Amino acid sequence: MTHFGLDTFLPSFSTSIFTSISVLADPSADGNFSYDDDDAGSGSTDILNAESPTVDLTAANAGGETLLTVSYQYNYNFGSIFNLEYFDFDASSWITWEAVPDNSFTTSNWCTAISAPTTVSSELDISGFSATQLSGFQYRFAYDASSVYGWGFCMNPSTLTSTSPPSCIDPSTLNATGIMAINRTMSGRHDPAMSPVLNYIRQSLCNLSFVFYSLK
After folding, report:
1. CA distance 85 to 4
2. Contact 118, 75 (CB under 8 A)
3. Which residues have a Cβ under 8 Å from the Cβ of 34 and sit 6 or more positions away?
4. Residues 6+ apart with CB under 8 A from 50
5. Do 70 and 63 touch, CB atoms closer than 8 A?
6. How would you list the strands of the sheet with 93-99, edge to edge?
7. Is the model's pTM score more than 0.85?
8. pLDDT for 62-91, tens place per residue?
9. What is d(CA 85, CA 194) in angstroms, rounded to the nearest whole number?
10. Which of 20, 40, 95, 195 is packed most tightly, with the most Cβ within 10 A?
11. Going from the N-terminus, what domains does the chain have, and what CATH number goes with each?
């Protein structure tokens, strides 16, 4: 597991349009990233992008750490778009990783209102990334409240983490009928609480073959 602690974000002013007096925390100077859309007023254009530095993922990928997550804490009350995005170097474009949901009713001082727990993003699989996509990787938080009269938000510094996929994946959301287990002693990763079918698939995924079943 590799942690990339990115305490410094670079506000992308070339692609941001906002009311400067409403920036409550500049991530390049304060670490936190905060904006007061209510203070900017109705009808204001509020597009802010806070980008990470470039992170070379070549070594992590070569070591089998092909799953990325971003962990952070935040307080966000009402806007139209707030996304976690990553940069596709080959396509020269930002791709939505996932949406950051509204999580509070705070109307001011969002940074002081941040509380646990830490949010962990969904996993991003980089196993298919090209060499330049790996070496030129960036992620950002993209906020846009131009179409609404929102309140505001604050985010603490985030951490990018790379991990290896599990060696034995648990099956999920599987259904079967007409299956009867033969009562046998089984080795490997057998779980008595799991249905016979799921145990069979689970052990098959782990290259084990000590389970016998019959169909009715």
Report:
1. 16
2. no
3. 23, 24, 25, 110, 111, 152, 153, 154, 155
4. 9, 10, 11, 12, 27, 33, 140, 141, 155
5. no
6. 10-11, 47-51, 139-144, 81-88, 93-99
7. no
8. 999 999 999 999 999 988 789 999 999 999
9. 37
10. 40
11. 2-163 (2.60.120.260), 179-215 (no CATH)
